[in-house]
Amino acid sequence: MTDLLPETRRALRHRLAVGQSSGRTPSVVAAVVRDGGLIWADGWGTVDGVVPDADVQYRIGSITKTLTAILVLRLRDEGLLDLDDPLDAHLPGTAAGSSTVGALLAHTAGLVAEPPGPWWERTPGALRPELADVLPETPYVYPPGRRFHYSNPGYALLGALIEKVRGVSWAEVLRAEVLEPLGMDRTGPEPVAPHASGWAVHPWADVLLPEPAQDLGRLVAAGQLWSTAADLARLAGFLLDGDERVLRRASVEEMCAARTTEYGLGVQILRAPDGRVLTGHTGSLPGFVSTVAVDPAEGLGAVVLGNVTAGLEVGVITADLIRIVAEREPRIPEPWRPLRSVDPELLALAGPWYWGPNPYVLRPAADGYLELSALRGGGTRATRLRPDPDGGWTGLSGYFDGERLRIERDAAGAVTHLDIGTFVFTRQPYDPASPIPGGVDPAGWRGSD
User: Fold this and answer.
1) pLDDT of amino acid 250
2) Could you tell me the residue ranges of all domains in the chain?
3) Fewest CB atoms within 10 Å of the CB: 3, 184, 270, 373?
4) d(CA 38, CA 42)
């Protein structure tokens, strides 16, 4: 574990202790990750009379959805499905067959939030024995694609989709394809000692009520898992840095890119009180609350787990742990290194470009990507671009997220301009030699009268 300054470690412990005390929670465990490695972990309160450490299991609820999404994107990357495919193409016979795989991942399919019947989190999954039991007769509350609407049944369908394509249980696929490669050997659908018990705390008295730990049955892929702070720290490291054994880097970035203001693909967009935009997921089941979140700009991630139904502000604590480290021990950047090899044609594109009169710079980065940055304020068209197998480039952020870069040339092969989503970038402001939409006044630039 990388050393932190003693005063930073004390500040982290103080925040965790204040959260456990004010949240009236039997126990809390937390961890902080920087650049893929665990740098701090601690616990407060007790589990079975002992202060818990990062190896004690807690139920993580909907953080399970992030792991389910990783499995779906693996299927997509293998060419076994497409995110625009209707569910019926791979899992026929459900009441939501017209919903696309991508919409289910992003919670934009318009499906109901919860399955029919009694509160599913506190009742046995055996009450909903068939996949059809997780959806009512009328499963849609909004037209598909209209808006974000969180849906637990939607992720139950994705779990069944994974099972149908792979031919084995969701838990088996998860173990082999994600948990084992990432070293998350204390994560699984059933608790393994040491683990916390779930509790409800009376709102007006310091007394406890045990919560039932139900098997979720068909909703396993939406929230079944138990895990530890140490294992979720590995998940945080994966969200920060990726792991090609599990998912290609571009797909991890795709997961974490916002599809709506609230969600990406199996990943929530979390807005911290200090204005930071974090990515990760919250989780809750009766007796447990949890959050894993990362700040890619700082290379930081944090995990908080507690065994209480309500009252513990895990999201706020998680964001505060990230803030404490970021402010007290700012990230030290990696040493600058030159490109290992130089593509002369790519190098010829480097340098200033202009969208109208607005100056930008295009820079080949050492990691093989391109960066289009504004040279002064108001650069709303800045983006990062990934190389595509066909030799092209696709935007990964900002306004041009998902848009293709076209490098336009004249008859002699010389580059005339760049086109990204119809936005023309030229070597000179409003270059008359380039096809500027609307044309350029033939008199050119002039002074005032």
Assistant:
1) 87
2) 6-328, 344-425
3) 3
4) 11
Q: Which strand (E) or helix (H) includes residue 16?
A: helix 6-22
For residue range 42-61, what is the model confidence (pLDDT) as tens digits? 999 999 999 999 999 999 99
Given a contact cutoff of 8 angstroms between Cβ atoms, the answer to whether 69 and 259 are in contact is no
Within 8 A by CB and 6+ apart from 295, the residues are 276, 278, 301, 322, 326
Closest CA to 33 of 14, 16, 54, 52: 54
CA distance 100 to 86: 4
14 exposure class (CB count in 10 Å sphere: 0-12, 13-18, 19+): exposed
Rounded-to-integer distance, Cα 199 and Cα 19, Å: 16
pLDDT higher than threshold 90 for residue 31: yes
How many Cβ atoms sit within 10 Å of the Cβ of residue 235? Answer: 27
Q: For residues 281 and 305, give the distance between their C-alpha atoms in angstroms, rounded to a whole number.
A: 12
Give yes or no for residue 377 having a pLDDT over 80. Answer: no
Rounded to 5°, the CA angle 421-422-428 comes to 115
SS3 content of the chain, % helix, strand, coil (to 5): 30, 25, 45
Separation CA 69–CA 257 (nearest Å): 13
Query: Could you please report the per-residue DSSP string of 55-106?
Result: TSBEE-TTHHHHHHHHHHHHHHHTTS--TTSBGGGTSTT-TTTTSBHHHHHH
The whole-number average pLDDT for the span 242-261 is: 93
pLDDT of residue 2: 58
Q: Which fold has domain 6-328?
A: Beta-lactamase (3.40.710)
Q: Which helix (H) or strand (E) holds 255?
A: helix 249-256
Among all chains, which residue has been given the structure tokens 């050997």? 185
Cβ-based neighbours of 367, under 8 Å, separated by 6 or more: none
CB 334 within 8 A of CB 324: no
Q: What torsion, rounded to 10 degrees, do the Cα atoms 227, 229, 235, 238 define?
A: -160
The SS3 call for residue 357 is coil
**Alpha-carbon torsion (181, 333, 360, 370), positive or negative:** negative
pLDDT in tens, 314-360: 999 999 999 999 999 998 888 888 878 878 888 999 999 999 999 99
Q: Are strands 208-210 and 199-201 parallel, antiparallel or unpaired?
A: antiparallel
Structure tokens at 441: 């006044």
Q: State whether residue 360 is helix, strand or coil.
A: strand
The pLDDT, as a whole number, for residue 346 is: 87
Q: pLDDT exceeding 70 applies to what percent of the chain?
A: 99
At residue 144 the predicted structure's pLDDT band, cuts being 50, 70 and 90, is very high
What is the C-alpha separation between 55 and 230, in angstroms, rounded?
Answer: 6
Q: How far apart are the first and last CA of the chain?
A: 68
